Write a sequence for this structure.
C-alpha cells in the first residue's frame, strides 16, 4: 500500500500520515509532484530484459513521452543479489537535485522517496503500480532498502538520463531508512 508521511524538516515531531491514494496525489500536487496509480498487470522474471518491460508498458510510456517530451526511457532493476546494490543505495540516499524532472513507474517492488521542498520532508512509500514525477530542482533522496527488490521504468527529457547534483546536506541521515519506515508506518 502506498503511503505518504509529511515531516517537519527537523524530523523530530510526529508526521502527518496519509494512506489513501487520491489524498496522497492531492497533497503531493500541492508541491508540484505528480502521483498516479497505474495498473501493473504483468509479472516479470527476475532476469527480464529492459526491452521486455518497456514493451509491456509501451502505450503508457509513449503517452508520457508525447505529453512531456521525454526522449528516452530505461528500466532500473535491482534485486537482493545485485552486485552493486550497496553502492547504488549509498548514492541514492544522498540528497540531490536534477535539472530535469524525475519520473518513475514502479513495475515491481517498492522504494521510499523523500522530497525536501521548503521546510518539510515528504516521504512517499511507492509500490508496484505507482507513478511519481518529481519536479526539476526539487531536493530529494531515495531508499531502495538493504535487500532491494524493484523494477522501475525511468523517463528522461535528455539523452543523458539520470544525472544528479548532490547538495552536500546530511538531512537524509535524520530520517528512517526503508526498513525502519516500514516498521513505524506501514
Amino acid at each position: 500500500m502506498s503511503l505518504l508521511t509529511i515531516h517537519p524538516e527537523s524530523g523530530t515531531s510526529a508526521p502527518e500520515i496519509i494512506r489513501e491514494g487520491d489524498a496522497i496525489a492531492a497533497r503531493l500536487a500541492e508541491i508540484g509532484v505528480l502521483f498516479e496509480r497505474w495498473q501493473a498487470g504483468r509479472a516479470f522474471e527476475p532476469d527480464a530484459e529492459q526491452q521486455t518491460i518497456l514493451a509491456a508498458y509501451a502505450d503508457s510510456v509513449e503517452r508520457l513521452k508525447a505529453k512531456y517530451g521525454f526522449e528516452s526511457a530505461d528500466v532500473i532493476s535491482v534485486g537482493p543479489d545485485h552486485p552493486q546494490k550497496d553502492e547504488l543505495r549509498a548514492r541514492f540516499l544522498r540528497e540531490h537535485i536534477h535539472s530535469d524532472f524525475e519520473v518513475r513507474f514502479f513495475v515491481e517492488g517498492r522504494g521510499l522517496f523523500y522530497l525536501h521542498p521548503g521546510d518539510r520532508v515528504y516521504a512517499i512509500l511507492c509500490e508496484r503500480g505507482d507513478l511519481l514525477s518529481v519536479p526539476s530542482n526539487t531536493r530529494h533522496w531515495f531508499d531502495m532498502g538493504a535487500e532491494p527488490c524493484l523494477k522501475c521504468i525511468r523517463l528522461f527529457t535528455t539523452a543523458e538520463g539520470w544525472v544528479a547534483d548532490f547538495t552536500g546536506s546530511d538531512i537524509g541521515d535524520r530520517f528512517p531508512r526503508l526498513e525502519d519506515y516500514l516498521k513505524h508506518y506501514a
Summary: The first helix runs from residue 21 to 29. DSSP finds five helices and eleven strands in the chain. Residues 44 and 53 are 8 Å apart (CA to CA). The radius of gyration is 16 Å.
